Amino acid sequence: MMKLVAIALLVGGCSVVVETCCVPKQWECFYGGQNATFMDGKIDVSATSAMHSFDFVSKKLAFIGQDYKIVQDYNKMMQYTIIQGHCTAVKLAAPIHDCLPASAIVASSLDMGGPDGVVIDVYDVGKIAPEYMYKGTYSVNHDGCIPFSETLMTDGSIFTLAYINITSGIKDPSVFDVPSPPCPKDTDNFVNSLQDQPAPSWPILPSLP
Ligand SMILES: *[C@@H]1O[C@H](CO)[C@@H](O)[C@H](O)[C@H]1NC(C)=O
Ligand SMILES: *[C@@H]1O[C@H](CO)[C@@H](O)[C@H](O)[C@H]1NC(C)=O
């Protein structure tokens, strides 16, 4: 959709133009992942899926699964998880970014899907976010920096994730509604008492510090 152009001034006074990959401001998709873990010589695979809405204008993310809803509000830096009528509110640890760092270099570019297919740019997660808990790859459609897939690895696990059936815009803004009750209405007081709780980190690269 868009490529931001950042101008970096070099010491010598010359300037170079760096293209930065920014995901679309508002989009939705079906989010399907598989986590393969290896322990004691055994492989276990668990699948996860959700409808995922990403709104960088209002700085909110929503994941709606079969029996849960998670809303991340990056204005309040709060995450609400609603499961079976219960709500857990935790403070988000890091702000969200819709652009990869300007220093991000495409590790490889691939033609996928034949002559009428798409060009995929693959980034090395370890290079663009060295402090992130996972190593792996982050792949986007070269045209528009639209998320394609991710591979996230730790010692003993490989998580593969695909962004399926992406549509642009937010069809129904109520996906970001946080029901109160059970969730707290005034989160400002709530935040202090929750500061010690680590926020779950989602395998979505734009939410990285
Ligand atoms: C996959 O499962 C392993 C083992 O439970 C866990 O440590 C890892 O964080 C999971 N990966 C993701 C991306 O959730
Ligand atoms: C993705 O879109 C196709 C074509 O519209 C549809 O048949 C399929 O069910 C959708 N898949 C998911 C997981 O939403």
From TrEMBL:
In the UniProt record, which is one GO cellular component term? extracellular region
**tRNA processing among keywords:** no
Keywords tagged on the record = Signal
Instruction: Provide the GO MF annotations for this entry.
Output: calcium ion binding
* GO BP field: cell-matrix adhesion
* Leader peptide range in chain numbering: 1-20
Q: Which InterPro entries match?
A: Ependymin (IPR001299)
This protein is called what? Answer: Hypp3068 protein
Organism whose genome encodes this protein: Branchiostoma lanceolatum (Common lancelet)
The gene that this protein is the product of is: Hypp3068
